[in-house]
Amino acid sequence: MEGTPDKTITLQDVAARAGVSTSTASRALAGNPVISEAVRQSVMEAARGMQYSIPLRKPRSKHVVDLVTVVMPPVGARVFPDPFILELLGGIALAMRERGRDLALAHVVPNNDDTLNALLKSNSNGAFIVLGQSQYHSALNRQFRQGRAFVVWGPEIDGQLYCSVGGDNFAGAVKLTRHLLRSGRKRIVFLGLAPFEAITERCRGYRWALEEAGLPIDPRLIRSADIGYDDAFDPVNDLLDGSVPFDAIVASTDMIALGAIAALRRRGIDVPADVAVVGYDDVALARHATPALTTVRQDVVRAGQLLVSKLFRREAGLSAASERLPTEMVVRDSCGG
């Protein structure tokens, strides 16, 4: 039964009861958005049960707003973003809901430093999650120096000041290429060079695995493509029309991989008997394709949790370190097992 607060109970006692650190207990009682709602409730229950005098919550800073805006990557001529981006948005939305915060999509899709700066200036107190950074890396560094609260989905790159969360693209591509090599494939295409740092890392992993196996890098097997389904058709047809021999494709996204399978089938080439195809991201379509697509899975739920938690640390004036998430290869029918 609750009575007069016991002044001998300390914050350290409450933290021990709740099973958290003293600093976490302090932030939870102060309503700091860095702390999840589940942890905050646990600490509050411990404090009430011990009759700890809970300090009055300070009003939130005028620089902290409830709405977090997601800045989408450019989609080029496509109407919708890549399916992986939509699944990542779901992971972010789940984490935001757990924190009791609202999420919005920016109505402007920036494609260079100037358009990104204009977007951020239009909401000078807002917090942002930026999906991809290759097109505006220098602008993001400037925004960081100015104290803006934002985090980025993408790999950590040279000279980066801001916090980013991304998958281990290099390791994921190494796993895929090694798997194809172990299955006896020797003439492996990389399909999907695009101006995105994540794709560049995947190509680097592909090249490294070939060099590890003692195979030469044939520049004819490295083909440019955007990240969509239809973008695979021209480079696959160019390979076939040019009589360039190949027996496998490492596609930089699942959608490119599915497009490549369709292009090969139109030319009477069997997948995986004639050409093995692997993708990247493990979007829902990959699991339901025929043949089901071998790919690399990125944990969008974990990614969403990290992006949101690191954003709230930045919003609270705390540091947030960049983080690289492990990836998992999922072997299905498109590479012959």
TrEMBL record:
CDD domains reported for this sequence: HTH_LacI
SUPFAM superfamilies assigned to the protein according to its UniProt record, in alphabetical order: lambda repressor-like DNA-binding domains, Periplasmic binding protein-like I
PROSITE patterns, per database record: HTH_LACI_1, HTH_LACI_2
Signal peptide (UniProt feature, chain positions): none
Domain of life (superkingdom): Bacteria
Keyword Transit peptide: no
Domain HTH lacI-type, first and last residues per copy: 9-48
GO molecular function: DNA-binding transcription factor activity; transcription cis-regulatory region binding
Entry keyword Transcription regulation: yes
Record key words, sorted: DNA-binding, Transcription, Transcription regulation
Cross-referenced InterPro entries: HTH_LacI, LacI/GalR-like_sensor, Lambda_DNA-bd_dom_sf, Peripla_BP_I
PANTHER family: ALANINE RACEMASE, LACI-RELATED TRANSCRIPTIONAL REPRESSOR
Entry protein name: HTH lacI-type domain-containing protein
Organism: Asticcacaulis benevestitus DSM 16100 = ATCC BAA-896
